[in-house]
Amino acid sequence: MLSSGPGLTIGPARRQRLGPCHGNPGYTKTPIGHWLSSVAGSWMRDRRHPFYRGLLPPQRVVSVDLEPPKLSSSPTTASTIKLFFEPSGQPGSVVHGPVLTGRPEPLGASIDAETGAINFALVSSSSTAVSLVLFTEADLAAGRSSFEVPLNPFVNRTGDVWHVMLPGLRDDLLYGYRVNGLHQDTDADSPGHRHDENRVVLDPYAIAVLGRRRWGQLGPNLAYGEGGVLGLMSTWPQAAAAVPASGPHVAAFDWEGDRPLNLPMEGLVIYEAHVRGYTAHDSSGVTAPGTYAGMIEKLDHLQSLGINAIELLPVFEFNELEYYSQIPGSNEYRYNFWGYSTVNYFSPMGRYSAALAEGRHVRSTCDEFKKLVKECHKRGIEVILDVVFNHTAEGNERGPTISFRGLDNRVYYMLAPGGEYYNYSGCGNTLNCNQPVVRQLILDCLRYWVTEYHVDGFRFDLASILTRAPSAWHPQQYDEETGQPVAMSSGGAIVSAEGIMTDGAGVPTGTPLPDPPLVEAISEDPLLRNTKLIAEAWDCDGLNQVGAFPHYGGRWSEWNGKYRDVVRNFIKGTDGPWAGDFASAVCGSPNIYANTQPHESDWWGNNGGRQWRGGRGPSASINFVTAHDGFTLADVVSYNNKHNEANGEDNRDGEAHNNSWNCGEEGPSGKWEVNRLRQRQMRNLSAALLLSCGVPMITMGDEYGHSKGGNNNTYCHDSDLNYVRWDQLAADPSGFHRFIRLLINFRRATPALQRTTYVTEKDIQWHGELPHQPDWSDTSRLVAFTLSDGKGGGLYVAFNTSHMPRLLRMPVWAGRVWQPLVDTSKVAPYDFLAADSLLSVDDVTAARRSLAMWTADHMYPVLPWSCIVLVSAPEDPTATSMIRRTAAQSASSRSQPSSGDVGPKNPMSWATNLISSQPPPPPGPQRPGTPNHYGRAEHGTYGKMSTVSYNDSNGSASSSPLTSGRSFAAAVSSTPRRQSAPQPTRANWRTVLQEASEAAAAALGSTSPPRDTGGAAAAAATASAELSLAEQAALTQALSENSELRRRLGLNR
């Protein structure tokens, strides 16, 4: 029985016949396991044993017939059946016992459960010789091998699989393969072959890889290129794979009963994240920044944000120093930060491991990643891996030989007849995905990550390459006598009559296949049945399959790039068909995923992809406004053009067509009106994303407005450009983090937004300024709709992307009223009316009642470039009643809190509920305790401010906008000031102003004011003096904007 591991094991393991051991002294005719325990100790202690004096000659294996084959795919392929546990003739060494024949499956290195021996199996169809190379870590760092076991082609090969088994192998060793064969540079008649016996290549099925231990660490300074020195250069030192281990000294990972979450696709909110970038910044405060362990420490942030699926940028082994060089014009160096350049598909990225950096065995990387997955699942978060099966790190003919190229270049890569590389990936090579061996590798890989690491799904980078026809070559055949190739086509490219490379069945290489074997195999695989499958349905050669990626019954979702473009264009207010397209995007893009009729410009949809058009629901659309490659959310509203100068490529790299708008000034701005508009637009884009049907995806850092300075291609930066700034997130100066957190959780609590089928006329109605009168013209800047929840309630949502305000009349639903929830024109925390640590239930109620003059008449004013969301609720007769406080509440408000008490919920003033952003800071120094930005004060964080009284004995009532009204001023002027009157402070200003108003009203109704109200009126007279300059400016601005809005809406009498 074989232990689990990546490979081809299917069905129950079978016990193998154990034959006698021959060839070396001391062997007994006992099962291998007993031989290992009874004999190994004696021969390893006996220094007179022949293997200490040199290499033994190959021993004859009497139980195996080694007659050479008459004619086969290779002159070295044995046609007889080998006995897997028979000695294959090579001697043992100090690190393992005598070599056994081994099994041809599973591929990779695995442990035989009966004997404990390590079995190695490798596919290499065109090689003429293979050696298993073993390393200690010290020898690996020195660029030399420790032990090499040459495989006997008559015994250690079955078909195209080379295999060997080593009993008693030390599990602290590492391994690779030395593979010899033809190379097209020295054998002109063998195009496509690139074997190099001077390289030691990685096993494609390696479960863990060690090259360097720490991120960014250069390899040893060796004489690379000289004979006997392994490795390419200090940025590409020799790498090797971990030998699997078992036994009492190896603790099995404790999953604690972890099982797949199997969350419904339509209920996901995906967070695209980079393992290193998530915690690498010092402000993360984690123990091991930039690692799997560091990410675990910050998972609670994602849970509180409302995220239930994390999509990790590549975590398969890659080389971050692949591009390592100084960036021209700077002191920084270029890294492969994102990781889209795979070295090995079965190994977690080692330099994301805190354990590996601490010096633990390379296998500890596997356990650390498993713990990350387990901790995600504990928080209800699924793990989706971004996988790159379109190309590898070996690049084109000038790239390094690391693994696949040295094993079977013709098999693993799409090649032209002369051995040139097809480049559909834009990265130098293209994986030959639909070639049977490569197809099986990919399928085995996906199965392995699901079963071994419990991951929940995969996002396939440039997935259209998975649908392209492979390249194929005639098998090489040899004459039994001469060993020379036979037949004119032997080993040559399979080409069409026009000389074009084909897949062996007449289909030109690279042609998109209507029924791609790989995609079908993934879709129908029973182990992958419940995993999420997401396609980036395009590639770098112009093939775009969005809406028609082969989905096999809806198994696949797609990154919807069209959604991104539509939402950006509509929100910034662009002329064109964007209003109608935006409405479709909000519904989950039925025009893309339900419509069976392709557009005339859709080449794929009108040809091989026509059968895949339509037939899917909203969850087929992965909606996103930003992603890792492109502008961040903050940069979409701050830059018209890309600014990639920091990449050292003269700003030539990156996408030039970004559909962005800088809101009036390029880059950082000191203009209040520009920054106000940017805050609105960030909220508008987020609202569009999270209020649309389909599956929303948020990019790491967008939850607090991370900026990359207009750089839309930060693939090469290991710096703050790509790091989450936890200090900025905690500060949250504009309240955007609160807004998006509440919006995400609102979405997850609203079933009407999580749909498996598209909306109908019963579910959604479209409106304009008047109900049921939408405007779908090319100049339309308004999209409004009501979405029913099927229970009598629902939502009213409107996006005004014009520079003009709108007065919207909402539809009347009998017995119900519209309650404001979201208004992106308002300053935080009033942009989202939900009770939390910043707004109490009373605050929310008061804010809604302040708008009752509109909502009671089913109307609502919408400022330019704003989004509103209102919730249908039963009519409440008290909604327009005056808000009164009880005596106990008033007394409590009048009491002076201690310095540790919580201050008012709004750190500016009540006026901030009326304006769309904060006023600019007043000139000169602020007084102690005055909030210098949203959510914080000099004495502490928002909600924890020390109580500070602001008294100004020289303030006058006439200077305050609060007392500019005639009746209020009269009341004040007729009332003497009392020194004992309570002074307005941040703790009691609401009560003081209310008492002042009541006193003024009472004064107007009598010939002489009541003696007990003079103090309150006097306090009101000085109220403006007790407000900070910033608060006075906010109040003035609020009154001005309110007056201007009423004038523009024609509401002034």
UniProtKB/TrEMBL annotation:
<comment type="similarity">
    <text>Belongs to the glycosyl hydrolase 13 family.</text>
</comment>
<feature type="compositionally biased region" description="Basic and acidic residues">
    <location>
        <begin position="642"/>
        <end position="656"/>
    </location>
</feature>
<feature type="domain" description="Glycosyl hydrolase family 13 catalytic">
    <location>
        <begin position="272"/>
        <end position="747"/>
    </location>
</feature>
<protein>
    <recommendedName>
        <fullName>Glycosyl hydrolase family 13 catalytic domain-containing protein</fullName>
    </recommendedName>
</protein>
<dbReference type="InterPro" id="IPR014756">
    <property type="entry name" value="Ig_E-set"/>
</dbReference>
<feature type="region of interest" description="Disordered">
    <location>
        <begin position="642"/>
        <end position="669"/>
    </location>
</feature>
<dbReference type="Pfam" id="PF21156">
    <property type="entry name" value="ISOA1-3_C"/>
</dbReference>
<feature type="compositionally biased region" description="Pro residues">
    <location>
        <begin position="918"/>
        <end position="928"/>
    </location>
</feature>
<keyword id="KW-0150">Chloroplast</keyword>
<dbReference type="Pfam" id="PF00128">
    <property type="entry name" value="Alpha-amylase"/>
</dbReference>
<feature type="compositionally biased region" description="Low complexity">
    <location>
        <begin position="884"/>
        <end position="899"/>
    </location>
</feature>
<dbReference type="InterPro" id="IPR048650">
    <property type="entry name" value="ISOA1-3-like_C"/>
</dbReference>
<feature type="compositionally biased region" description="Polar residues">
    <location>
        <begin position="961"/>
        <end position="986"/>
    </location>
</feature>
<feature type="region of interest" description="Disordered">
    <location>
        <begin position="998"/>
        <end position="1019"/>
    </location>
</feature>
<keyword id="KW-0809">Transit peptide</keyword>
<feature type="compositionally biased region" description="Low complexity">
    <location>
        <begin position="949"/>
        <end position="960"/>
    </location>
</feature>
<dbReference type="InterPro" id="IPR006047">
    <property type="entry name" value="GH13_cat_dom"/>
</dbReference>
<dbReference type="InterPro" id="IPR013780">
    <property type="entry name" value="Glyco_hydro_b"/>
</dbReference>
<dbReference type="InterPro" id="IPR044505">
    <property type="entry name" value="GlgX_Isoamylase_N_E_set"/>
</dbReference>
<feature type="region of interest" description="Disordered">
    <location>
        <begin position="1"/>
        <end position="25"/>
    </location>
</feature>
<keyword id="KW-0934">Plastid</keyword>
<dbReference type="InterPro" id="IPR017853">
    <property type="entry name" value="GH"/>
</dbReference>
<dbReference type="InterPro" id="IPR004193">
    <property type="entry name" value="Glyco_hydro_13_N"/>
</dbReference>
<dbReference type="InterPro" id="IPR013783">
    <property type="entry name" value="Ig-like_fold"/>
</dbReference>
<feature type="region of interest" description="Disordered">
    <location>
        <begin position="883"/>
        <end position="986"/>
    </location>
</feature>
<dbReference type="Pfam" id="PF02922">
    <property type="entry name" value="CBM_48"/>
</dbReference>
